[in-house]
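Lecture 7, part B: from sequences to assemblies.

Below are the input chains for today's worked example.
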Amino acid sequence: MSGSQSREVYDLTVIGAGVSGAAVARRLSMYDIKVALLEKETDVSFGTSKANSGIIHGGFHHDPTLLKARLELQGNLMFDQLQRELHFPFARCGILVAAMNEEEMKTVQYLYDRGRRNGAIGIELCSRERILDLEPKLTSDVVGGLYAPGGGIIEPYRFVFALVESAQHNGVRLITNFEVHRAEYKEGLFELQSKKGDRVYSRYVVNAAGLYADEVSKLFAAEEYTITPRKGEYYLLDRMTKACPGKVLFPVPNSVSKGMLVIPTVEGTVLVGPTAEDIHEKDDLSTSSTKLKAIFDSARQMIPKVSTKDVITAFSGLRPALPGGDFYIEASKKVPHFIHVAGIQSPGLTAAPAIAEYVKDILKEEGLTLQERSDYDPNVNAVPRIRNKNSYDIDKLIKENPAYGNIVCRCENISEAEIVEAVRRGHDTLDGIKFFTRSGMGRCQGGFCTGKIIEIIMRETGKSYSEITKRGKESTVIWRSLCEQNK
Amino acid sequence: MNPNKNTKEMICIVCPVGCHLQVTVDNDEVKVTGNRCPRGEEYAREEILAPKRVVTATCRLENEQHPRLPVKTDAPLPFEHINELLDRVYELSLPTPIKTGDILIEDFKGTGVNLVASRSIE
Amino acid sequence: MRTEQIDTLVIGGGAAGMSAAATVSAAGFTTALVEREDELGGVLLQCIHNGFGLHEFKEELTGPEYAERWVRNIESSEVKVFCGTTIMEMSLLEDGRKECFGYSPEYGVLKFVTKTVVLAMGCRERNRGNVMIPGTRPAGVYTAGLAQRLVNMNGYIPGKDVVIVGSGDIGLIMARRMQWVGSTVHAVVEIQPYPSGLTRNISQCLNDFKIPLYLSHVVSKIYGKERVEAVDITPLENGVPNHDKTFQITCDTLLLSVGLIPENELSKQVGIELNSLTNGPTVDSMLMTSIEGVFSAGNVLHVHDLVDFVSAEARLAGENVIEYLKGKRPERELSIKPGANIRYVNPTRINPDAESDIYMRPLVVSNNARIQLQVNGEVVKRQKKPHVQPSEMIKLKITPKIFQDIEITPDSKVEVTLQDEP
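Predicted structure of the full complex, as structure tokens:
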């Protein structure tokens, strides 16, 4: 899945296989055009799309004049259909905003009105009784709040993996380990050159490069802007925690961010966070102990039972922030056939399917002829996963494929067959397998399964131990093998 | 901790108590203090004059399910020979079957210490 | 679906499981032993160092040798062994029996309908998330046990320049092992002011290789984009990190030996009550959990340091399973609590009419200690211990003779205490 053939010309190349790029690629795969999806990392969804809150937003956080508000609601409504086609974990569990005093209730009222204007379905204002009824784990200090039943939660990387698979299934060419290094527009064609010297030619380009969209834009001599990485730190709590709410809990937002939340993930664990801190380095994903208190204090204000004892791990994500805070999705005025999809912060995940529609329309306006393919298939094959099945169904599965009976990850109930399938679908790094299967995300954090997963990757790909990485490039996990040399 | 170039401090490893010993070498005589039992004295003497350790390691097995065989020395080996033994161990490549106790390297460097298999593999 | 109807299901084929299964089976009860790996032995198979078996076999054995003795016992017994099988579900049937589902590539899903269960699943390691070391998340961070498995079972050396967090025995053993495979261990960092492992291991594993041990220090940050590049080490002063004195060590590997947690997810799933002092099930004088007929022994009950004690405890559990299957129950039980300088006692109930062992951990280090068993303040048993430390479990024998001359009622206060010998 790396490198490209000489002089293969695409109608459209999407730069960046995060949620925006993947959604665009899939949407455009419905047409009779040649599409390439470029990704600088070893696997897709390795940027912001793997480290975020995983929330499908409820349509009340942003003013309707903003593009992101319109795309948020439109995107939200598309998720049921998408789940049926793509089988990623999604639950429309509902979102609550909890107010702790009358001042905050005023803000909630404002959010409610805005939600109504945006067209958020079923949004309601809650009394104290109503909100406690909706979420019994909330502190009894709550005075009321907002309920958006249209809000939900997904596993964002599973969504992106599925979008990319679907795109590939419909002819999109995924090229990983391709970091655009140089770009030139000559005679109606873009020539994109990777750091390694591979070349891709394309009539149209969509820049969905996330944190690096500003740098990519510069490479193409298009509009100049600056993306500021805005770090969000999270803590992940054990699925056995007593503090797991049934709905996504927001505090009343402040001017910078939506606040620090308590999020029940689809898979049963709990996320607390994120913080919001502008930083300089686009690859600074470090976590620090100084944020712990703030995150847990905020979480405990809503759910008193939240405890640091339940922490499994901490991680950070970086939002690609643009001044003004709205999405920048426009055809370039400087460079023909070049579309910006930049500044996709929250509610980027929610809006992604709608972003894809919007970009499709822009491409059409820019002259890309879009003829629907007769053989477009929106569905991907779901991987049977034992965690979702009962013992009788699993018995049948194992008899068809014994690898389903070998439990590799006991914490999350993942069988060897699922790991093998992940590798066969192109996820051959420890993190790629982790995001595709959940193996390594549980309470032992890979303590038991890592050895077995390394063996499976080697067996399935023929790679040697020195080529096994955590997430590609130099993130190797084994230095030497005693079996292959003298000391 | 007294600066006396002939005195060495060490911790006895014979039993879990771990007495802190002071060992002085005076010409050919070894004097030990701090031990709570005679085994400590013996350990200190040996440790000063001729330290030895049991070495445990693994070597290559020509077996798909079990690529490594745990091995050990059947008696403590003089310190100065340990690295060479390890080099030899890592050069070994053995076919199965193997039984616990099988001698893999006999009388290493004339010390009378053998390297033996620590596990049986079919 | 293949169903096995048995008297006893032992979950976990390590030291505890093998001992319990052999014991119950020898008394003629149908016993199944289920192990998720492809062979019996548990974590012993990767513990290639010696020091095992001094009590149980009166010999000093390596982990694999110790395991092999028990595997031979099992092979020559009537125990039905199911390897490569993972118990995923347990539920209680109306007639009091338990129904457990195990997944196996060979058999599909196996249903075990059993009168009794012995939980012997062992423990898992604390990891970076549990101790919350800040910094980046590069490749090169492993728990010591994972590194041990990779090195000893696969022959894969995780890295070249190592820093180890935690001076417990696993960390110390791995310090030596890494040096012996050609890596360099630059430091062992211990948060407490004293090392948690055996002194002999400090000598054999650190001093022999001149590896510095930093007591009262923590790893305060991990650096590295793709792979670990360095760590910050900070001293604690009065328990608080003094960041002005932080220093950095260049390394590519961090091994974490920061504690073990009994693996009780299955127990929690079925609603077994856990003891917060041990993270294992609360058990009575029969080592029976809060669910009738479900027993527990070994590391899943409380983290041990000597495998010989694991085998002994599991044998005891097995003997109690036999009594239970014969319909016998203790006539009376007393609650036993940790007293002065004792962190916890297991089990938390004792049978004054039977001979048994109780296990405990001290809170302090002492080279001249006295353990006392007291009933309502009266000392009924004392035992001298030349050396105690928190990382070494203590076993104490209880016999009916101890309670002969005193009056006991269900409310009698029984306590174990530890003091320095006067």
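Note for the exam: The helical segments of chain B are 38-49, 82-91. Keep this in mind when comparing with the next example.
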